[in-house]
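Reviewers asked in the last cycle whether our approach scales beyond single polypeptides. To address this, we selected a multi-component target totalling 572 residues and predicted its structure end to end. The input consisted of the following lines:
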Amino acid sequence: MNSDSTQSYSLVVKKACPTCELILPVIQQLARRVDLQVYVQDDPDFLESLDDINSSDDSSLEYSFHNKIEIVPTLIRRDGKEESGRIVGWDREQWREFSGIEDLGAELVAFKPGCGSMTEDPGMQEILAARFASEALSARRIDLADAEDEMEACYERGWTDGLPVVPPTPVRVLRMLAASDRAASEIVGRVPPDYAECSVEKVAINAVLAGCKPDYFPTVLAVVEAALKDEFCMHGLLCTTYFSSPVVIVNGPIVKRIGMNSGGNALGQGNRANATIGRALQLLIRNVGGGKPGGIDRATLGNPGKYTFCFAEDESDPEWPSLAMDRGFRRADSVVSLFAGDGVQPVLDQLSREPESLALSMAASLRSVAHVKKYGMADAILVVCPEHRRVFREGGWDKERLRQALYDHLMTPGTELMSGVGGMTEGMPEKFKDKLLNKFRDDGLHIVTAGGTAGMFSAIISGWVASGDKGSQLVSQKI
Amino acid sequence: MSNLTMLDPTSELNPAERQLLPRLEQLAGATIGLLDISKPRGKEFLDEVERQLLELGATVNRYCKPTFARVAPRELNQRISVECDAVIEGLAD
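The resulting structure, written as structure tokens, was:
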């Protein structure tokens, strides 16, 4: 080789690795014959017993990180400054060929695999990335003073919804980002009401704030993408004086993979994924979009779901199509759907054992969405509980039959809905008097199933009164 | 200096430093609290501030910390925040 004069070797080892211990005589042999620099990850005194070794303490792991060391020992050869090859572990023939030293390690076993580099310890990659590759992150850094409490600091800067948040340190954000293959700098869209540009990194920071595990991050990204779809009308939804806010429903294999709750108390508290995925969107709207109560958010009352409202559908009945399937996806797809919705209203029916009776109960309850005499205004989601679903199944009804029955039962003559009827001034305008009206616009009533196996209690999640083309429509996004 | 670094979750349209609360646009009609921290001659100083504030059309409420050596009691802080639009603290010496 004509570049021999500039050829050099680097070797990365750790004392805790028996293979590195084994090759100590080889290191001595190498150091006498070639230009060798050894980097020790754990104990800087590891090579003390050897003579004239150029040894560097890499307990910071900076060299190992920058050189992408995965296994120790790793022997790297450079011609000039360029790496011309590397070998890992101990393989006598390979080392002899690689170094050009024919009798290298003659007294050792022929082969012994190496150990994992300390850079591959759990969680270490993100810690090292935060320390040595911080250019991967572009968000503004906020250094806290010694006396500042990190939890209070988040409150004081206005980042929270009123509940504590997880301080978004670079390491936590890098761990979140590592759960997706998308670049931190990729722009997801513009977040209303400020229409500020939002990068994958900003989504990750808010997911950290919300308490998400990195496992949830791809779902959070899909939720954000769905929220930014034009037909969801996030800007108007945030500004409205009405109650509504995004309700997130998750379908598909992802539900089990990240441990979401579709069973008992599915709409309630207690499941980290349900709680934090919904919250991540709310915090993103607040922090990146600038939408805050009393500012652009003009809700008269709001609703508790504005902290978070996210649940998974119970897909345990293979005969019952999921919401995602209603929207054109397959059972095998993982999908998030967003609905502009309010609180939860119960549909109690403990006596119906026939589908006809139960469907009538549900339809009667659905009439009260927004106002019993306001039709075609708000959409709704009917959350059918398992015991009610069983009534339909045992009665031979599928989801389509239920949907059709609800549609039929919710047709109402305009005369019954006029302003003044029942002594109530609120009602439909005069022009609808001679028409037959449905409570919901086409595609305005969605049916999902969730809940515990005991209790004949379904639920209505009523929607924003600006629905359809005039406002918000249910949107779905594949994860 | 710092013991923790956080990444800004916002759109970064506002400065990172904590912002001052909005200032009063005028004193006329405003209620101003004068907080005496219980140092000698604080009363005389605040009497003069009160006279001038009244001339400018403000309403003045007077408060007193039990001792200058400690932070104001929580109850006093809360009372001032409810009863006043702004507060002037009378640091003597």
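Chain A touches chain B through 36 residues (CB under 8 Å). We regard this as preliminary and will revisit it once experimental data from Aim 1 are available.
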